[in-house]
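Lab notebook, bench 4. The sequencing result for the construct came back, and we need a structural model before the next group meeting so we can plan mutations. Quick request posted to the team channel:

Model the 3D structure of this chain.
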Amino acid sequence: MTLAATAGAAAYPEPYDEVQPVPLVTGQRTAVDSLSLTLKSVLEAYGRHTDYDTVACVTGNAFAPAVDKRIACGSFWHLQAPMSTKGLVTAGKVLGFSVEPVAPATDPQAPELVRKALLKGEKVIADGGWNVPEFRGTAGQITSVADDGSLTGTPAFSVSEAVVAEPIDFWILSPSTATLSSWTANHEIIHMAVDRINGNAVYQGCENCRFGVNAIDAMIERMQTVEGFCAPCQESSQNGWMCAADTLRMIDANAVISARVLRQMVKTAPAKAQRGLRRAAGYYTRISLIVKPRLKEEVLRPIMGDLERQRQFAEHVMVPIRKDLSGAGRYLQTVLDNT
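Done. Here's the predicted structure in token form:
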């Protein structure tokens, strides 16, 4: 399918199963939300086996991208775990766990609070700060507290332990009963999705963080103005195209997940919500249809480093993605309005 044909397609494509799921493997780390992966592991420890796609949507994270503009490398600016924790409380209501925020690592009481939680068999999630640079912005579980108060744990994707070396936030998780019925839970998830897409409520971001369409705007700006998309990787190895691919790969993976979960919701949704869910799912499918063919080296490498071609890529690829994400948000809003 050509870009022109994709950009001019109907509001949503038929059939709805054109795009296959992205396998969850550590080799595709740049397409996986570390907070959702960590939460999945916690739930499994509690004997609750939930697939990654469900967790990624229940946290709200799959429905729209986020970026931290302070991160220069395009392979990691969309993966910073502190941007992924906004929906933890709602996720707990849906999946059945309680969430207690803990004082940050700079608080002298934090290590003792974490120690007590671990002794009670509770799980403690951290949103990064590890002493291994590769995992600095990665969520993970705290597993022990040393006598000197240092915190050790396992970042998502890592097979080795690491020490918390920077100020971060913690959450104590303990099993409880899900408090939301099926459609009420889906309604809450959709509400989070709309807020994340539009950058509203808890997703208004900070000085350097952007969510949803605002994150896409930041990607467009970087594509239009930064030679190679990722200045450090382009300058060091002419591999800025790989960073662009990593950013796009997360958009593609999450679009596939969001489309599939929304279609699952249709099965139990009130009749007046079904059309909006299908239309929104269709927009996510179209995002994947736009992105997936452009993840290849032979497509991206010749473009990255040529600002004029990068601007054309932004216009013909990134702008349509933004429009479709906005379209998904509009139809999800109709679901909220009608139910």
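The chain is about 50% helix and 10% strand.
Will bring this to the meeting.
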